[in-house]
Write a structure and sequence with these properties.
The complex is a heterodimer of chains A (about 375) and B (about 200). Chain A has ten helices and 15 strands. The longest helix of chain A has about 45 residues. In chain A, strands 2-1-4-5-6-7 form a six-stranded antiparallel β-sheet, covered by helices on one side. In chain A, strands 8-12-13-3-14-15 form a six-stranded mixed β-sheet, sandwiched between helices. A three-stranded antiparallel β-sheet of chain A has the order 9-10-11. Chain B has two domains: about 40 residues, Orthogonal Bundle (Helicase, Ruva Protein, domain 3); about 120 residues, Dna Topoisomerase Vi A Subunit, Chain: A, domain 2, CATH 3.40.1360. The longest helix of chain B has 17 residues. The chains are: A alpha/beta (about 375), B alpha/beta (about 200).
Chain lengths: ~375, ~200
């Protein structure tokens, strides 16, 4: 998948910006507040119909404007043009693909796969378990519609059961307890599918992490990842049985607290370097390296599974890394194909081996200069 | 602009109907205004009859014009096989197939604690009572394959199992005439899991 150009209107600080991209590496350079990250954000918005970190689309509309528009030209087996408009007044989004009005978001999602590395990725390795689950769930969902549907079904079950637990806290009668058994059975049925899918995924994804780690570090540090589920399991044992027993054991607790205490919505993933827990013992550099590795692994994993190279967006990837790792990453990007990388003009990027096909785009006070 | 009050009221009432917006309601009201009196009268009567002549079957809670619905009254149906559905509209859907010769039981919804629907708000006790009153051999659970429908299926299965009655559920899989390549992954996955030998 190649993105050959984008046109932004009223997106963040961009009033009207037109950019033509290289099929190889695109370095977007500029000082603070020049709108480098906004360009990556607009590409992400166009590919997924969602903004990266805010839930409210109004935030990405240029100040004092009402309507934003992004037009992008993609090249795959054939050319296609995608156009998204958002209207602040009516909070409405309109999507056109090759001039055809698209009404279902599901028809766009997955059409233009995208992988983005941002400074907020630090929460994946350093934050709460929920951040790791979000990462894993998003990668699997990009590759498997079945998993996504299962996850939505499971989350709905959780909401229904939580509501029932609250009722049970007030009134304890046999009918409600029987109903709780039914919701628990449902939880086990769809929760088990999620656990098995995650186990299979991690087994495969591990190798992608190892490969990426080797390219970036090339020394004797060996990365690992382990999936911890149902209060400490890591092997595929009798999931149904254990799940059932745990739900039974925590039943009173669940009713007392009115919330779901057992299940894959409480699982965690443990990242390791040389068998040592990264979250607890990793240095800043090791964390940053691991975050970069995870995104490269995601890229190559999705490329293999879907047969389509995702669009790769890297925001401030070289920020906290030493020259040696930075050089390796910039060399590694050659294997990706097309990528979009932001750099501040303070960064010393003399290490970048810029080739003829690569493009440096400089942003300065709304002016775009190709160097 | 001044609009005659009866017209305004008609538009207001019509726009309460599902999938009827303000504009459609206005078009309908003006159309009725232009129609001849007999047509309007027969529409009014049809709507009135809906409420006065149709009620729920005292046995299965399907729509009925008498004490029992047409299905429950029929001697040609197999009364030892009960198909459990969510709503009366599901009975209509299954009846259209002419494939089912048993009788029905309409639950009137599915379990959903979030909207306050528990076992007591559904016709579950009435279903259990039918096991005492009638000679039931098999129960076919035909609820929607969504989160709440599946949980209700699990609930009913557990409740009925001790009674020693055969419990079945409708199969899930591909639509007839549908192309395998256009079906969604989850449906194909279920269809593969539920394969049958030939």
């Amino acid at each position: 998948m190649i993105l050959s150009s984008v046109k932004l209107k009223n997106f963040r600080s961009h009033k009207e910006t037109k950019l033509i991209f290289s099929e190889r590496l695109n370095y977007i350079v500029g000082g603070n507040g020049q709108g480098k990250t906004s360009i990556l954000e607009s590409i992400y918005y166009l590919c997924t119909t969602k903004s990266i970190n805010s839930n409210f689309d109004g935030e990405v509309v240029r100040f004092n404007e009402n309507e934003l528009e992004i037009i992008g030209s993609f090249k795959d087996y054939s050319n296609s043009e995608a156009r998204i408009s958002y209207f602040l007044n009516s909070n409405k989004k309109i999507y056109f693909l090759n001039g055809k009005h698209i009404t279902r978001a599901a028809d766009i999602i997955g059409k233009f796969p995208v992988v983005i590395l941002t400074p907020t990725d630090h929460s994946i390795t350093q934050g709460a378990p929920g951040e790791r689950r979000k990462f894993v769930d998003s990668v699997i969902s990009q590759a498997s519609e079945t998993y996504l549907k299962n996850l939505l079904d499971y989350n709905k079950t959780l909401r229904q059961k939580a509501s029932l637990l609250a009722q049970l806290k007030e009134t304890k009668n046999k009918t409600l307890f029987d109903e709780l058994d039914a919701w628990n059975s449902k939880m086990i049925a769809s929760g088990k599918e999620i656990i098995i899918h995650r186990l299979k995924f991690i087994r495969k994804f591990k190798d992608f992490i190892k490969d990426s780690f080797k390219v970036i570090l090339n020394d004797d540090e060996i990365p690992g990842v382990e999936y911890m589920f149902l209060e400490g399991l890591s092997q595929e044992e009798n999931i149904e049985d254990i799940f059932f027993k745990l739900l039974h054991k925590r039943k009173d607790d669940e009713i007392r607290r009115g919330s779901n205490l057992v299940g894959p919505h409480r699982d965690d993933f443990v990242f390791k370097i040389n068998d040592v827990d990264l979250k607890t013992y990793g240095s800043q550099g090791q964390h940053k390296t691991f975050q970069v590795v995870l995104r490269f692994a995601q890229f190559f994993y999705l490329k293999e599974i879907t047969g389509k190279a995702p669009i790769f967006l890297l925001d401030d990837v070289f920020g906290e890394l030493d020259a040696k790792r930075s050089i390796r990453i910039s060399e590694y990007l050659r294997q990706v194909g097309q990528a979009f990388i932001t750099l501040t003009d303070f960064t010393d990027f003399s290490f970048l081996q810029k080739e003829d096909d690569d493009l440096v785009i400089k942003l300065n006070n709304g002016q775009v200069v190709y160097a | 602009m001044q609009i005659a009050e009866p017209l305004l009221i008609a538009i207001e009432e019509l726009s309460k109907l599902p999938s009827i917006g303000k504009k459609t309601a206005q078009r309908l009201a003006l159309h009725l205004l232009k129609s001849n009196t007999e047509d309007v009268d027969s529409l009014v009567n049809a709507i009135k009859d809906l409420k006065t002549k149709i009620h729920f079957c005292s046995r299965c809670f399907n729509l009925a014009t008498e004490e029992l619905c047409e299905v429950c009254k029929s001697s040609k149906r197999d009364h030892s096989l009960i198909c459990v559905v969510e709503e009366a509209s599901d009975v209509i859907a299954i009846e259209k197939t002419h494939e089912f010769n048993g009788v029905y039981h309409v639950l009137g919804g599915v379990l959903s604690p979030l909207t306050g629907i528990g076992p007591d708000s559904l016709k579950i006790k009435d279903l259990l009572k039918r096991f005492e009153d009638e000679e039931i051999k098999e129960i076919l659970l035909a609820l929607n394959p969504d989160t709440e429908g599946e949980t209700t299926t699990l609930y009913l299965a557990k409740l009925i199992k001790p009674l020693g009655i055969k419990i079945t559920r409708i199969a899930r899989g591909l639509p007839i005439g549908g192309d395998l390549e256009f079906a969604d992954e989850a449906t194909i996955g279920r269809a593969v899991l539920g394969r049958i030998s030939l």
